[in-house]
């Protein structure tokens, strides 16, 4: 609400404040991975002694960004930080981009996402191109995403293009791919760019301009290693010669999960892992990374999935058995799971009651209790459980 009010009465506030950082503004945008990549990038820059302003709540639309600024801004409209690092929603970012001059723009990927807003991938790519076109120094791009390569190929400017991605061996180890609308691999020279060369659960090996470093990931999966590669590339673009791979690797390894994204918490004496899924690709990648044979899984799909057919391309069969299906779209999700051969315990659209039932069960025989939810159900679950 504060951001909504200020944007109405002082429409130039957001752009003016974002343009006031002495060492510039860094924008992180794309379909998926923005929050984790932003958190990693902030950690790396702070480890190198930089003071950072960011939006840690993941509020990435115009009013959310303005509200985050209002928490730190002084009466002169300035923030005591050297660099701004902001996650931006693709649509809202494209709207305010003409008034911004970010030093670095990081593009994560283009996926089938929020089809009620964006309709198709070409629309998303056009929005990202608008944002990337405002970069004054560097555009950091996922070189395994064919649509992003088209964006930077069409930018006839002097802006530096910095690429990151995964090695052929890592790509081959993910037979379903990494969810991009159009994959393009083999475009990076490992001696020049940042390349993920190996992933093992919550750890990864990354080559930074030919120097190999080991990093811990905040959650399982190659997609989190790709987030780390993007953050490392952007940090190197910002810091230049002062960038230290060892310092950066240590900073990434210490990053905790952004809430809901592979986060493990203790609730009512039970250890629970929260797995946030936000689009079909995210759903697939996270399901594939879960340990097989878990005997207590809770799946909740909420009102953010307006058309449940959106999730039908997902192969949910690796879940095996789901204890409870909940959320406002519980019956639609249960149908999808059934068609994939997943055994279902109960279906209960009453999310608070279903959570209480799930947490009251004895500890699982294998793994820990696992909650897979979409964004609406994630927010409602955290509120019901009293989590910040």
From TrEMBL:
MF (Gene Ontology): acid-amino acid ligase activity; ATP binding
Domain of life: Bacteria
Domain Lipid II isoglutaminyl synthase (glutamine-hydrolyzing) subunit MurT C-terminal: 276-357
Pfam families found in the cross-reference section: Mur_ligase_M (PF08245), MurT_C (PF08353)
Coiled-coil boundaries: none
Mur ligase central domain: residues covered: 28-233
InterPro entries reported for this sequence: Mur-like_cat_sf (IPR036565), Mur_ligase_cen (IPR013221), MurT_C (IPR013564)
PANTHER family assigned: LIPID II ISOGLUTAMINYL SYNTHASE (GLUTAMINE-HYDROLYZING) SUBUNIT MURT (PTHR23135:SF7), MUR LIGASE FAMILY MEMBER (PTHR23135)
Name under which the protein is recorded: Uncharacterized protein DUF1727
């Amino acid at each position: 609400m504060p951001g909504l009010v200020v944007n109405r009465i002082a429409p130039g506030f957001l752009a003016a404040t974002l343009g006031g950082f002495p060492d510039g503004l860094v924008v992180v945008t794309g379909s998926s991975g923005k929050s984790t990549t932003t958190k990693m990038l902030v950690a790396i820059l702070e480890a190198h002694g930089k003071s950072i302003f960011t939006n840690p709540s993941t509020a990435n639309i115009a009013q959310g960004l303005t509200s985050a600024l209002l928490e730190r801004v002084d009466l002169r409209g300035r923030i005591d930080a050297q660099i701004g690092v902001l996650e931006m929603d693709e649509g809202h970012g494209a709207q305010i981009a003409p008034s911004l001059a970010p030093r670095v723009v990081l593009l994560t990927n283009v996926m089938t996402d929020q089809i009620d807003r964006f309709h198709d991938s070409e629309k998303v790519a056009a929005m990202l191109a608008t944002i990337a076109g405002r970069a004054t120094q560097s555009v950091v791009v996922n070189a395994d995403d064919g649509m992003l390569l088209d964006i930077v190929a069409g930018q006839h400017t002097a802006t530096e293009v910095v690429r990151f991605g995964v090695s052929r061996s890592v790509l081959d180890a993910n037979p379903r791919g990494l969810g991009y609308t159009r994959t393009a691999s083999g475009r990076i020279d490992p001696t020049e760019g940042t390349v993920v060369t190996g992933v093992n659960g919550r750890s990864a090996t990354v080559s930074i301009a030919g120097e190999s470093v080991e990093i811990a990931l905040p959650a399982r999966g190659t997609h989190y290693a790709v987030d780390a590669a993007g953050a490392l590339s952007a940090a190197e673009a910002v810091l230049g010669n002062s960038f230290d791979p060892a310092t950066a690797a240590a900073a990434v390894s210490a990053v905790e999960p952004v809430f809901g994204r592979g986060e493990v918490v203790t609730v009512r004496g039970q250890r629970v892992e929260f797995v946030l899924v936000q689009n079909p690709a995210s759903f697939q990648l996270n399901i594939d990374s879960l340990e097989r044979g878990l005997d207590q899984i809770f799946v909740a799909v909420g009102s953010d999935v307006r058309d449940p057919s959106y999730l039908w391309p997902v192969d949910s069969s690796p879940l095996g058995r789901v204890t409870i299906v909940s959320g406002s779209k519980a019956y639609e999700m249960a149908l999808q799971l059934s068609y994939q051969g997943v055994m279902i315990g109960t279906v209960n659209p009453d999310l608070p009651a279903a959570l209480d039932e799930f947490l009251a069960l004895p500890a699982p025989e294998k793994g820990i209790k696992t909650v897979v939810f979409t964004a609406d159900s994630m927010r409602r679950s955290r509120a019901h459980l009293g989590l910040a």
